[in-house]
Amino acid sequence: MNKIIFDFFPIALFFIAYKSYDLYVATAVVIAATIVQVAYSWFRHKKVETMQWVTLGLMVTMGGATLYLQDEQFIKWKLTIIEWLFGAVLLGSHFIGKKTIIEKMMGANLELPKKIWSVLNFMWALFFISVGAINIYVMFNYDTETWVDFKTFGVPALMAVFILLQVIFMYRFMPEPEAEAEE
Length: 183
Known about the structure:
Largest sheet: none
Oligomer: single chain
Distance between the termini: 34 Å
Number of strands: 0
């Protein structure tokens, strides 16, 4: 739960700053919050996850371009870029290595057939690619306020529903507790 709050911290500050000021102030706030988040990870754990570095790099690049050029499209594209990057990495893991990324992340805690790991990984890749596409639709068809609401509440809601569906899907393939006791 702490990780979820920690990961949501920059997004929450972005939303508050946007509602209190404007997109440009919110962009500066989210850049600063992301830097603080990465620095905290480094000082607390002596390591920073790869995705935090990637997010920081994109945030500074796309957010910096938004501020420098006074063009909100850059910060809006950041969401699609990061989602498509996640999707591409997940798809690539089907061809590189013996295990998909989803299996590497969850395999120590969950026993599933190899084919199911592959299906889950593909479903996650498709999810991230779809969210990136939905972001493009929202950013080009709605105003900035709607986009901010989508980014702040819509994307996490989509993620929560998707995770619930994944749990339901995986449950069908998990070994029965009685079968484990007999072995």
